Amino acid sequence: MEIIRATAEDIISVRRITQMTISAVYPKYYPIGAVEFFMRHHSDAHIARDIADKKVYLLQVEGENIGTVTICGNEISRLFVLPAFQHKGYGTFLMNFAENQVMQDHRMIILDASLPAKKLYHKRGYKEVAYHMIETENGDFLCYDTMVRMQ
């Protein structure tokens, strides 16, 4: 198991991990308009920009890219693990890495918690500081919390 910084050649892997995870997990928690919003939000353009800014990391297991996380200052985002590899500790491994990276320079970690991830963040000591509700297509709503954890 190894975490590497993503390069421009890795955009396909980051997109695949992100889109496959959203497609498999998010429909269990959100209406279709919200799921489609997430898919558009994690577009190739956004991924490419973050890779160019050296903010994106990939988790490799036996040479296969199975997870990704984006770190921007003290904010952790786009943390996804392929569905076939979930519930095996890989998300925790990625989260530990991301938190350690942030804590090198910051006393507070910020993240936006989707409904599927919120329980994990609570277990790690994160607290809600803001609630957001975005109206999406078809009159559906995307609800999520901004959460923080202090060092």
**Regions with little confidence, pLDDT below 50 for 5+ residues:** none
Q: What's the total helix number? A: 5
> Spatial order of the strands in the main sheet?
1-2-3-4-5-7-6
Radius of gyration: 15 Å
Q: Which descriptor suits the 3D outline?
A: globular
**Helix-strand makeup class:** alpha+beta
Number of strands: 7
In this structure, how is the largest beta sheet organized? 7 strands, mixed
Described by its quaternary structure, the protein is single chain
Q: What is the overall pLDDT average? A: 95
Q: Strand content of the residues, in percent?
A: 25-35%
H/E series: EHHHEEEHEHEE
Helix content: 25-40%
Kindly report how far apart the N and C termini lie: 26 Å
